[in-house]
Write a structure and sequence with these properties.
It is built from no helices and 12 strands. It has 159 residues and is an all-beta fold. The radius of gyration is 15 Å and the shape is globular.
Length: 159
């Protein structure tokens, strides 16, 4: 896979998924100096069972502190690609465990374009929402769980 992105593939935040159209998708968290938690995730696709890969590219356009965990990448029954992430806006702290927002990047077109949740899930406590994971419910709604700084899990549902 050609890697022309700042940072390197992290030791965590890797997902590997066979898509409904038969492609393999590889999603990687990036370690970037100065971003305590990482940068935007990178994605690459293979149409030949992993023999060759598209060049890695970012799933968004707003660089900053983002964190995605291992095996959190999902393709819904309707084909939408979803990546749950924790994000720390620049004015809320400098480390991964500061006040993070839980949100998702999603692609309705197989990874060609990516958009971000309009309304992030957030908590009032200082720990915010870290390490979000998602599941598709029977009604196609998404359920997100994330750990909090107060030692509990918080749930959020898509609208």
């Amino acid at each position: 896979m050609k890697w022309n992105l700042p940072g390197m593939i992290s030791d965590g935040g890797v997902s590997f998924l066979r898509l409904q159209d038969g492609r393999l998708a590889f999603l990687a968290h990036r370690q970037i100096s100065g971003f305590h938690g990482g940068g935007l995730s990178a994605i690459s696709f293979s149409t030949d069972a992993g023999q060759t890969w598209t060049p890695a590219r970012l799933i968004g356009d707003l660089e900053g502190v983002w964190c995605v965990m291992n095996d959190r990448f999902l393709q819904t029954s309707r084909g939408q690609l979803i990546v749950p992430v924790a994000h720390m806006p620049a004015d809320t702290g400098t480390y991964e465990d500061d006040k993070n927002l839980g949100l998702c990047f999603f692609s309705p077109d197989g990874g060609v374009t990516w958009k971000r949740s309009r309304v992030p899930a957030q908590r009032a406590d200082l720990g915010g929402m870290q390490e979000p994971c998602i599941a598709e419910m029977e009604n196609h709604q998404l359920l997100m769980l994330a750990r909090t700084g107060s030692g509990s899990l918080s749930a959020s549902r898509s609208i």
